[in-house]
Request: fold
Amino acid sequence: MYDVWKNALAEIEQQISAANFSTWFQDTSLISTANGNIIIGVKNSFFVKQLRNRYLDIITTALKNNNITINTIDFEVQAKVKSKVRPREVIAGKDPIKERVKAIRNTNDMKSVLSNGLNQKYTLDNFVIGSNNDLAVSAAKSIIAAPGTRYNPFFLYGGPGLGKTHLVQAIGNELLKKDPNLKVFYTPISHFYSDFIDAIQNGKGKEFNRKFQKLDVLIIDDFQFIVNKEKSQEEFFNIFNDLFLLNKQIIVTSDRLPSQIKTVDECLASRLTWAGAFDLQLPKFEDKCAILRAKADLMGAEVEPEAIEYIAENVNTNIRDLEGEFSTILLMSEVRGLTPLELIENGSVSVNKTTKLRPTSPKQIVEKVAKYYNLSVKEMTGKSRIAHIKTARQVAMFLLSNELKLSTNKIAAEVGVKDHTTVMHGIKKIKQDLKLNFTLRDQIEEIKEKIYG
Amino acid sequence: MKIKVTQEKLSKALNNVSRIAIGKVTLPILNNVLIRVDNKKVSLVTTNLDMAIMDFLPVSSSEDGVVTVPAKLLAEFVSNLPKGENIEISSKDTKVDIKAGKYSSTINGTLADDFPELPEIEEKKAVVYKIGVDEFKASVGQVIIASSNDLTRPALTGVYFNTYDGKLAIAATDGYRLAEKIIIDKVESEVKAIVPSSSLQEVLRSISDDVEEVEISFNEDLVRFRLGEVEIISKLIDASYPDYQKLIPKDNEVKVTLDREELIRVTKLAALFARSVGGSIICETKTPDTFLVKSVANEFGENDSEIKTVVEKDGRVNFNSRFLIDALNSLESKEIEFEFSNRVSPTLLRNTKDKKYTHIVMPLNS
Reply:
């Protein structure tokens, strides 16, 4: 029916002026054609008379041309703008669900952002320490104890939602707690740029520079968004150097190492990791449980250990997702009046968050590693003891184990070594090197990117 | 077509009808006013396809005919002519000549063929009510303020005319407050119709001093207001109106009587401090004799005012001060009743004597 009317309208449109068409026919519809009794829906009664007296002939012809039999034609007022509101009391009282959502939202509101860019909700107390971040946290603590000394610059990196912003903001907040007169400034790199460009345009470049030189602690977030603009990067570099020479604390976060950010000048990249680079890793199962327990305490919610374990086991992406899923479950439990565990057991919630990586095969990994190190697969899986070939082979073992969880025996077969003890040794070697050798870390990250990218 | 009429009468009629002829619509002829002379009856008509205004013009002499002219242009031309001047309008095809003493002009009009034919209300089938003009004006004014302009909820953008218990009431709500007024105590016929607030505004504007009575006629999907020489036809809103009676609280726990002027004054004082918190003010009752209005604005300070009255029960409720002031302004008597139960249920405001008008306001979440 809808199509018939559409065709008829197309025909009518050609016969009358555009203004008339859009005025009189725009909101019409064909309601019924039963037994040749045509009913056409119109916006309001102002349209009925006009259509009947002026356009009936045109409508009749158009419908006939679309093979509709016509006895009578009638018009009916049919408001097209149907109420989009779900039925509810007009004067809405408190909606319990909404109230609860609001309450939960309020636990992480953004109201407390200060002019120095710091949000007071981030503290070290509510940062859950685990094996995935203990190094970074101990460095953070030593910065709080003595800013601008040992870990300067403090370079923190890790994937999204692992707590980078939380940790660096916590450093800022704790420092201010210790000494309120300290000049701390937090800014994402993108804001740094837009402010810089504004300053330049208003001829206040010097003032901009001076403002930063007065700081005691500068925190730059999301450094990976640094842009490849010489002038701005130079400005950042200058500020960086000035502060550094004055022993002022600089803190930088990024989702990867500076050497992996293509737009970063080499000189700047090496300076940023001068005092080492600290990473936040994906939390292990126990860490995740600890995070969830802390969150439950914070929100004053009772959650069964089994429920916590279930969620911890099934969210494998990052801490942000973990907390998000957890809040959703708490909310549902509030609304439905069931405990989180009951919800999980009766299947009302299904939590499954895992990083979606492209599936890969052992063969692919071996090929990609070989290619990365400019070797042929044959060379790499051969018997050569030359150092760089051996390293490549060990990297391949490491990745096969880490990414595909292959058994050491299978790995031995894939990379052409005699037995599984060699593989175990190789993996151990790489793991150890990773702790100190940043180049190797970079390399492995890059290979992973190639495998999954 | 030819008419002779005084400047005052013509200007008044043109100003009235030309308000809705403003080029918002796609059809250019809707910016025109239709001038029709039919057996000495002269009518000026405009429409925006949601409503139409007709003004019947008393003229000294006329010749039959019909033409349409850009409404704004004609209205402005005529209103700038000197008062007391006799104006003669005549048309030949689409040329419209206007002469007034030494002033004359020619306006290019349009043939009336394209002007929409207006819907009519069949007198026999119509439901008709009559009400004194002052009562009508006051009542609509008291209620219309509570209507909504949220187009996603069409029903609430109108004023609901409905009969119950043999009375005709009008009501409006925007979901945060509700106003109801009983406008006729005894009616025979029944009606349930939502009149667009925008149309009612035009009705209010079109009422001139010499009108004494408003005649309201409904049919299935139209309403017509007759105001002396002026007739306004409007569509009705095709939606179902919420059952608002249920929302009016019947037994409130806290009831106080307050001096209206004084409550307006303290509410306005509190509102000054409440600007930064979205106008939120607090009303508190304290036994035996204190009604408190408070507001707190962290950066500016705070405000506390007391009104002495008889209080039987302690209570507390938060409001948007704007809604409260609107409500108080539409009440009329010297003293008003202020009733509420708790912090989440609606608060009721009424004149102490005349119970025909009811205003309820939802408290703010606190």
Q: What stands out?
A: The mean pLDDT of chain A is 80. Chain A has four domains: 2-77, 134-280, 285-345, 362-452.
